[in-house]
Amino acid sequence: MAKIVVVGSINADLVARVSRNPKPGETLIGRDLVTLPGGKGANQAVAAALLSESAQDVALIGAVGSDEFAISATAHLAEIGLDLTGVRAVPGPTGIALISVGDDGENAIVVIPGANLAVTAAEIAKQVDRIATATVVVVQCEISPDAIATVARATSGRLLLNLAPVIALDPEVIRLANPLVVNEHEAIGALECLSGVQPQVTSYVDLARRLLDAGVPSVVMTLGSAGAMVGDSHAIGPIPAPKVKAVDTTGAGDAFVGALACRLADGDTLIDATRYAVRVGAYAVTGEGAQPSYPTRDDELPEEP
Length: 305
Fold this sequence. Notes:
Number of helices: 10
Strand content: 15-25%
Shape: globular
Largest sheet: 9 strands, mixed
Strand order of the largest sheet: 5-4-1-8-9-10-11-12-13
């Protein structure tokens, strides 16, 4: 059985390169358009598989459609040897992400779920045995809240919940996350889900502490080029990121999550796993696209600052 099970979205990414991302109501001329494999679930599974001793240690559960984009979305997954026995083909369109990437590496993304809507609680229930036997289970929020709740409650190992994008989840589901992985904006959304009110926070440390006080066992907050903030019942502290030249930030957060899951499955502490994940995320922004920019076990990562 797979050590890491990732449940989530599988997309084809349509990526346009532009000098800068357009303002609301503005039209810009792009330089080129490429189709790449993507989706937060697929991205995180690929990142974990490339860094694992064997790609078969990682299983992906999700769905693609019956259109031509299904091939674009899954060809790389099959090529690297991921366990895809939990991926279904359903009638209709594959999930699509429309992405524009500026010369500064920043992106703007619109996601059309397509077949990812077929990843339902009923379908997840068919995969309970696989989920229950995994060392680490990873889930994000491009599938339905009911499906996420079913994944969380079926997990007997360690649940890594990436609350991205922020959706309304049962607070008890969020409290099962160990760790909850969020950026600073998602962290505020998570705290709002847990407390029912719009939080007023003064710092990243304050935000992490309030999530822990709300019952989350551990928190990893990604902070882009600043690195990450890690918190659990013992301590809260920053993990700085290496300084690199960003080419494309698309999927860098997913590379981070996959690396974190890989090291947690191998028995690392949360702090050590986060130190490694920060370096993997920094590596990912130096290449174009999401999955094509991810390192393997043999690639040299940026050094810790």
